[in-house]
Specification:
- This protein is mainly β.
- The chain has one domain.
- Helix content is about 10%, strand content about 45%.
- The chain is built from 2 helices and 13 strands; from the N terminus they run E-E-H-E-E-E-E-E-H-E-E-E-E-E-E.
- The chain has helices at about 20-35, 95-105, and strands at about 10-15, 15-20, 40-45, 50-60, 60-75, 80-90, 95, 110-115, 120-125, 135, 135-145, 145-150, 155.
Length: about 180
């Protein structure tokens, strides 16, 4: 039996407001950054539409806290974009943006693009967001311990099969018993 192709999405939403718990996001960041030698101890801080990431940077024999401000956070076409705001280290000294941009490029060279002549960073999320998902972030705001994210209208057109996972034919020697012949021990 073949199912007719439909242009209607499986699920859709019209403007969605999602709130992330900042302490939980920080825990996840700590777990993910455990594999990155150059970065540790991430904290998210912010107010209104500015999100600050405070992270300890280890470079050569120096270790220092750096605060990176992210502004105008957006997501379109499975790419996350943001503008770098103020950068501070060593208790408030300004840091050249080029240092952070180069570090990002070194950590994820195949995923991070810096738009030439600007402080806009684009992170390719196509590995994590399947093409069947239409997702756009239109605003991000920090209120208390909540990271509020407003999504534009979007949809999911299909549920994709996980990559690298195929259904096998199975083992014919290990089949289910005939119906009604199940015994208990």
């Amino acid at each position: 039996m073949t199912l007719p192709l439909s242009s209607a999405p499986l699920v859709r939403w019209d403007d969605l407001h999602v709130v992330f718990d900042i302490p939980m996001v920080e825990r996840i960041l700590r777990l993910r950054l455990a594999e990155v030698d150059a970065l540790s101890n991430p904290d998210l801080v912010g107010r209104d539409d500015k999100l600050g990431l405070v992270v300890r940077v280890h470079w050569k024999s120096v270790s220092m806290k750096v605060r990176v401000e992210l502004r105008e956070i957006r997501l379109r076409h499975r790419r996350l974009g943001f503008r770098l705001g103020h950068l501070r280290a060593l208790g408030g000294l300004p840091v050249p943006k080029i240092a952070v941009l180069r570090t990002l490029r070194e950590i994820m060279p195949d995923r991070v693009t810096i738009l030439p002549g600007s402080d806009v960073v684009v992170v390719d999320l196509r590995t994590w967001i399947p093409p069947e998902v239409q997702l756009r972030i239109v605003a991000v705001q920090v209120v208390g311990e909540g990271l509020h994210v407003w999504l534009a209208s979007g949809s999911v057109t299909d549920i994709p099969l996980p990559q690298n996972q195929q259904l096998s034919a199975g083992n014919p020697e290990k089949s289910l018993p005939p119906l009604g012949s199940v015994t208990t021990t």
